[in-house]
Design brief:
single chain, 254 residues, mainly alpha
Length: 254
């Protein structure tokens, strides 16, 4: 790595670059940092994410924001979205929902599905911006049309709760199933709920076992509380066991 410079990186073939950027390469973080320092927006956004997560390097959330800003200055939509996430959740900065909304709106205007989803979430909840559920649903639907599983799940919530639209449990169940199949942990849990309500506890347990693959600890606590209060004996016993079968650290950085 000592002799590697940006000119050599530019001259490399796709296969050589792929090998350098492989997660198995111990020099991967150094390569990404080199490209980030050379001004490549994708590398700046990726290096910021690595610093945010502490992935392959020491975690430094404040430094991560700096790299996100460098990429954002070049119009990098995901970096813009991630600045919003930092303000939304207090990663390296104080929580500021209004500033988070500003960044999410910019990412949404660029057509990024995560920007659409995150901005819609704040609009739906009235956090940092005035509550506007009709506008939120429109944005969720745009993100859902792009295949964003979390947005698909939120559309399902609108139909289950009767927000903006008439309450329709069949439509809600359809969206929850799609979100579950798309990998969203909330979608998996909601799909399991709908299956259980329809009397299909066996399939509900299968989906509950997949919730923990990427759910956040906070959601796992809420899900377990719901199962504990269930009137179905199998959900109370087997459901909690299934829920905790495949726990991970969650997908909170999205």
């Amino acid at each position: 790595m000592a002799t590697l410079d940006i000119e050599r990186l530019k001259a490399m073939s796709a296969d050589e670059l792929s090998a350098l950027l492989s997660p198995d390469n111990v020099e991967r973080s150094a390569v990404i940092k080199l490209a980030a320092e050379a001004g490549f927006a994708d590398a700046q956004a990726l290096y910021g994410q690595m610093l945010l997560d502490g992935s392959g390097i020491a975690q430094d959330q404040r430094a991560a924001i700096g790299w996100f800003h460098k990429a954002a200055e070049q119009g990098h939509a995901m970096a813009i979205n991630m600045i919003g996430r930092c303000y939304d959740l207090g990663w390296g900065v104080a929580i500021d929902k209004a500033r988070a909304a500003e960044w999410f709106r910019i990412a949404a205007d660029k057509g990024l599905d995560w920007g659409l989803y995150n901005y819609a979430t704040l609009l739906a909840l009235g956090q940092g911006v005035a509550e506007d559920k009709p506008a939120a649903l429109a944005l969720f639907r745009k993100a859902a049309a792009m295949g964003n599983a979390k947005a698909i799940n939120f559309v399902g919530s609108f139909y289950e709760d009767g927000w903006v639209v008439d309450r329709d449990m069949a439509v809600a169940a359809y969206h929850y199933r799609r979100a579950a199949e798309g990998g969203d942990f909330r979608g998996r849990f909601n799909h399991a709920r709908m299956l259980a309500c329809a009397g299909d506890v066996d399939d509900a347990l299968l989906w509950l076992a997949r919730v923990g693959e990427n759910a956040t600890p906070a959601f796992m606590t809420k899900a377990e509380a719901w199962l504990s209060a269930s009137g179905d004996e199998r959900l109370r016993s087997e459901g909690i066991a299934a829920l905790n079968r495949n726990q991970s650290s969650g997908d909170a950085t999205i």
